Amino acid sequence: MNKVVFCQASTDLIRPDNPCLDYYRQMYPKNDGYHMGEHFMEVPTWIAVISGMLPDEHYEKSLHVITDVQETIKYFHEQDEMTIVMFSVLEVNKRIVQEVIKDIPQAVMCGGYVHPDEVSDYAIWCDEVTDLIKYLPHVQVDAPPNYNLFKGWMKSIPRITLSEGCLHNCAFCTISRELHEYTYDQVYAQAMSFQGLEFELVYVNDKTYGQANNNLWLNSLFSVIREYNPAFQGFIVQTTVPMASMMLEAWIDMEVIRYIEVGVEVVDTEYLKRMRKPYNLKQLDKLMNKIRRYDIGFIPNIIFGLPDHDYKSTLHWLWWNADQISFINPYVLCQYEESKGQMFEGGGVNDTNENVVDKSWLSAEDINRTDYAMKQAFYMTGGE
Ligand SMILES: C[S@@+](CC[C@H](N)C(=O)[O-])C[C@H]1O[C@@H](n2cnc3c(N)ncnc32)[C@H](O)[C@@H]1O
Ligand code: SF4
Fold it and tell me: Which superfamily does CATH assign the domain made up of 1-19+39-155 to?
């Protein structure tokens, strides 16, 4: 039997003192169906995907949560050296992964969203999960995800993907502009793979829900999931302001969408243009007037960390619409090599770190204003 350990760093270790995490911890319990796990904000989908590709009859699989790097290194020194240890490496956890992998005796495999050089001295790098087939036996690339490692101990919001990509071109965004739709069999298999997990909501991973032709499958997927999980309430979708505005009535009629997340980002015409956001403030007003009429959760994404900006118009908008807002998704602007456009001169060490406000394009005054605006936004939308 081959042994694989999936390693995931606890959110508290990745984001120590991050005010957004505190805010989410306050807001999730106030919103029906949302659950914040002890270690993760959501079930790590990459583990379920790879776990599905490694058949149970050939692989003994386990999960290790990193809460303390030295404890983790000690743990692996006590484990079978023939075990394979896997990580998903992101900008925000790469230092933790680097520290662990240089000191453990097992073979390490990594994938994720950093440059492979960040870990390649100590690990095999996979560009895609399907690369596993090059290194491991019995890999089934088309198998559905397997959530067994998360069943029975954590409440969650699993993710379902109907399509990948987004047709828009926002400057900060890294999502491919090619829209790829999944087949019904692929989506159905994902819906069935959640069976046994404890959840009330499912997050639709499509980047702009409504663009793909298969978006109406949510109707039948709702019935599929409800059949085995009577506690299931419905879906959370993310989309753009104009798409939400255009489709809202139709989505309300479907009766399976409980929350809508939209990229409001900043309520400022000039910055929306610089971001190449595909909406204007009139469309946002129209959407809010519609949202007001229906019983549906509304979650605007807000991007902080813009220079020479006081966020007054955004804070005013949040304050004015607070009764319609379930909570906000706060982001700090990051600029990646793969971003579709460059908004500012970059190159700072923190420019790709979503947990750090101190970006190369922000002055000391901008950073103070960002901290203040974030606190105000949290407070206006129900945080402390
Ligand atoms: C994938 S988008 C989905 C929303 C929808 N497509 C829209 O743009 O209206 C999710 C959110 O991630 C945030 N985001 C994406 N890239 C970012 C970046 N480079 N820096 C900060 N926030 C980012 C934005 O707030 C964006 O609305
Ligand atoms: S931010 Fe949203 S709308 Fe803009 S390109 Fe990315 S996914 Fe598409």
Answer: Cobalamin-binding domain (3.40.50.280)
